[in-house]
Amino acid sequence: MSAAGIIFSNVHDNNMPELTSARTTASVPFGCRYRFIDFTLSNMVNSNIYNISVITNNNYLSLMDHIGSGKDWDLARRSGGIKMLPPNIAPYSYGGQNTTGLSRLEALKGVNYSVSKIKDEYVVLSDCDVICNIDLNSMIDYHAKSGADMTLAVKKMYITKEKARNSVIMEADEDGKVTGILNYPRDFSGEAEVCLNMIVMKSEYLKLLIRDAIARNYHSLTKDVIANKIPTSDIRVYRYDGYFAAIYSVEDYFAASMDLIADEAARRALFEVKNRPVLTKIRNSEPTYYSDASRVKNALIADGCVIEGNVENSILFRGVKVGRDTTVRNSILMQDTVLGEGCYLNCVITDKNVVVRDGVMLSGAATQPYYVAKRKMI
Question: Which of 29, 133, 144, 353 lies 20 to 30 A from 331 at CA?
């Protein structure tokens, strides 16, 4: 039973404009040394899916640099492997609208020719910002045994009105058969089975869906396709009970990152699952240097850093430098951030290659972190 994977790299770019102004959602740094797409790629590779296509629209240079040939995920193969599918967009396509954050269905329609060449029996569709460690083999087996036309991964969780507005909520019976769907409800809060934006179906069924969507000028996979097919098709849910982080904003990104520090169970559920490692691009860096005057408490720190100040409840990516008498609390410092002497940072997110000069004080809040743009000097 073979399966191919399709990953959407841009559909949620508008959710985090600060972090995606110069990169795709797929290549947003997360968890000290990873990118969002590492979790989706690892889920697929750990489930023996080695024919993977990544659909892109724009800003995908950093994503291409990160993935390279795919060797770090064992995807540098003659047959299958990983393929970047650039946008197939002619002038004035989609009515001249901005193509950033096009829907999943529009993305599939744009790469219809590549999808038509898939020979694997099944296909797994996934967003790139699905932060979880899931056994997709189990999901595919469940789908095959149920005989369903389509299976969607869901997790039962409590969601607020704000999160519900960015979520697709599935209504299903005890057997997992979908009976209804709520697309981004405005006034819902409470416990619900939230779609994780991972879908399994037969590849031939996907090809048929795309051809039908092109003929009928459909635009949304959930609103135009899935919702319309519920009465006539067998659509099921696969109930996942592991850790999952739903990231709909910079605030959610900050909260999910802090969870890695504060919640040991969440960290174990992501990074310590037997036979399911999270893979990423390997970079050979020197070990992190800690001076005699440095103090570090409850932090995740990558290699290649120089720590001469105080770091607490924070995440530091590769190559970060913290100067003497500088204090960093509850913050995320991305690759090659340089902090001078006597600085103070609290609830701050610095993008890559940021420089903070001596004596600068920056502070945000857990519900609204202070963000410093890439390559900015303060």
Answer: 133
CB–CB of 148/236 below 8 Å? yes
Q: What are phi and psi of 136, to 5 degrees?
A: -70, -25
Reference 194, options 153, 228, 138; nearest CA is 153
Residue 52 maps to a domain: yes
Where residue 316 sits, what CATH number does that domain have?
2.160.10.10
**Cα dihedral 69/75/78/82 (nearest 10):** -70
Range of the domain at 154: 3-271
**Domain shared by 336 and 213, yes or no:** no
> How many angstroms separate the first and last alpha carbons of the chain?
55
CB atoms inside a 10 Å sphere around CB 181:
18
Helix ranges (H only) for 84-202 are 104-110, 112-116, 136-146, 161-164
CB 332 within 8 A of CB 370: no
Domain identity same for 159 and 231: yes
Helix/strand/coil percent split, the chain, to 5: 30, 30, 45
Nearest CA among 258, 271, 259, 234 for reference residue 330: 258
Query: Are 218 and 259 in contact, with CB atoms under 8 Å apart?
Result: no
Distances (CA, A) of 76 to 50, 277, 281, 348: 9, 18, 13, 37
Burial of 281 (0-12, 13-18, 19+ CB in 10 A): middle
Q: Say yes or no to pLDDT of 201 above 50.
A: yes
Strands 190-202 and 150-159: antiparallel
Given a cut of 90, whether residue 290 has pLDDT beyond it is yes
Cβ neighbours of residue 275 under 8 Å, at least 6 residues apart? 46
- Indicate whether 277 belongs to any domain: no
Same-domain pairing of 188 and 332: no
Amino acid identity, position 185: P
| DSSP-derived pairing of the beta strands 29-30 and 34-35 | antiparallel
Collapse the DSSP code of 70 into the 3-class scheme (helix H, G, I; strand E, B; otherwise coil) and give the result. Answer: coil
What local confidence, expressed as pLDDT, does residue 129 receive? Answer: 86
- Alpha-carbon distance of 30 to 333, in angstroms, equals 10
Q: Cα separation of 136 and 44, whole Å?
A: 7
Kindly tell me if the per-residue pLDDT of 88 is higher than 80.
Answer: no
Which amino acid would we find at residue 199? I
